[in-house]
Design goal:
Shape: rod-shaped
Strand content: under 5%
Order of helices and strands: HH
Radius of gyration: 38 Å
Oligomer: single chain
Structural class: mainly alpha
Largest sheet: none
Distance between the termini: 98 Å
Number of helices: 2
Length: 138
C-alpha cells in the first residue's frame, strides 16, 4: 500500500561569504571617516564664516567713524574755502589761494565719497555672510 505523506516544511538559504565580513567592516569605517571629515569641514566653514563676519563688522565700525571725521573735514574745508573766497573778493587773497582752497574741498569730498562706497561694500559683505543664498561679486 502506498501511503501519501505531506510534510509542510519551509527552508531558507543564506549565503554569506566567509571573507566578506572584513570588507564590510572596512567600508563602514571608511564611511564613518568620511562623515567625520565632513563634520570637521562644516565646523571649519562655520568658524571661518564667523571670523569673516566679525572682521567685516569691525571694518564697518571703523569706516563709520572715518565717515564722521570726513564729514567734519568737508564742513571745515567748505568754511575755509568760503573764507578764502571772501578774502579774495576783498583783495586780500590771490586767485591761486582760492583755487587751492577749492581743491582741498574737492579732495575731502572725494575721500568722503570713497568712504561711503567702502561702507556700502562692507554692508553688502555682511549681508552675504548673514544670508548665504546671496552672492557678492567683487
Amino acid at each position: 500500500m502506498h501511503e501519501q505523506i505531506n510534510q509542510n516544511t519551509a527552508g531558507a538559504v543564506a549565503r554569506w561569504p566567509l571573507f566578506e565580513g572584513n570588507r564590510v567592516a572596512h567600508e563602514v569605517r571608511g564611511q564613518e571617516s568620511l562623515a567625520r571629515a565632513s563634520d570637521e569641514r562644516r565646523q571649519q566653514m562655520e568658524e571661518d564664516l564667523y571670523r569673516d563676519w566679525q572682521r567685516a563688522r569691525d571694518q564697518l565700525a571703523g569706516l563709520t567713524e572715518e565717515e564722521e571725521i570726513n564729514k567734519k573735514s568737508v564742513d571745515q574745508q567748505r568754511r575755509l574755502a568760503q573764507l578764502v573766497y571772501d578774502s579774495y573778493k576783498l583783495g586780500r587773497a590771490t586767485f591761486l589761494e582760492v583755487q587751492a582752497a577749492n581743491l582741498g574741498l574737492l579732495q575731502n569730498q572725494v575721500q568722503s565719497v570713497k568712504t561711503e562706497v567702502d561702507i556700502l561694500s562692507q554692508l553688502a559683505i555682511l549681508s552675504s555672510l548673514t544670508n548665504p543664498s546671496l552672492e557678492v561679486v567683487p
